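User: My collaborator sent over this chain with a note saying "see what the structure looks like." That's all I know about it. Can you take a look?
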Amino acid sequence: MTATPQFPGEQGAEGAFQRQADAFRDWVTEDGRSGYPAEGGRYHLYVSWACPWAHRTIIVRRLKGLEAVVGMTVVDPIRDERGWAFREGPGHSLDPVNHFRFLSEAYQATDPQYRGRVTVPVLWDRERGRIVNNSDDDIMRMFNRAFNRFTSSDVDLCPSELEREIDRLNEFLYDNVNDGVYRAGFATSQAAYEQAVTRLFDALDALESRLSTGRFLFGERFVESDWRLFVTLLRFDLVYHGHFKCNLRRIVDYPNLFGYLKDLYQVEGIADTVNVDHIKRHYYVTHGEINPTRIVPLGPIQDLRSDPGRRHLGAGAISSDRAARGA
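Assistant: Without extra context I'll predict from the sequence alone. Here is the result:
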């Protein structure tokens, strides 16, 4: 039996999911030399509460106190063959900036020849009427650095002295965990699925060990890597364990990872960025090839507000050689 791929253009010959590259990679900079100067009210963020890539940018926007600087509009969590849509509903709305009905209109306005999959997040330039960037990696860094004169937040999610180590760990997290759950869930062959799941749980085991000696991935302060991991851990027991068949273990079965997840969730303002209803309805209703009944599970019952039990863990950054090994 041959399974139907979720995204045929991103499926390899052996049944492995191969995510498309981000198409728009211009940068907003503090000095404006890029052609996109940091300005209050000029840029707008299109996101989905459901998407982990978009969720990362929502989190950085919140931590950096940029809500009044960069606007944000949330799409409907239910995506059909027309793609992400702007509709009125609980937690999502019409587009107040361009009055687009579908996010694809933003892509076509920027590049009429664009034929790839339409994804979130999107950072839109209201002045030039085009997408600046659709890479969550870039948008996180822009929000962290380019808009500092517009905010009183002193949060720095990528300190210069840790940047190389953060980049190495981010690559490990993306390859094995963040995209790893999708490589398992979107696999169309047994071999591709098993390879992805094995790599995923090897990585989770390594992260569980790493987090036994530090409150966060680099000691006692959170950085960009922590939020990259957070968005996947948050969705794991809700969606990936069952829907994507990542079911060797749950995150609740990992004492350090589960405590770490709760610790991050309880950071001021973060719970406001989490919409469990959107997350569950998006995955279980949108992925008809994986869940043809489109029934949304009621569970699991998960208390992320209980004591994480991690504040006693030691300070200090993880050593460079350990970060270079990936976990």
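A starting point for your reply to your collaborator: The two ends are 37 Å apart (CA to CA).
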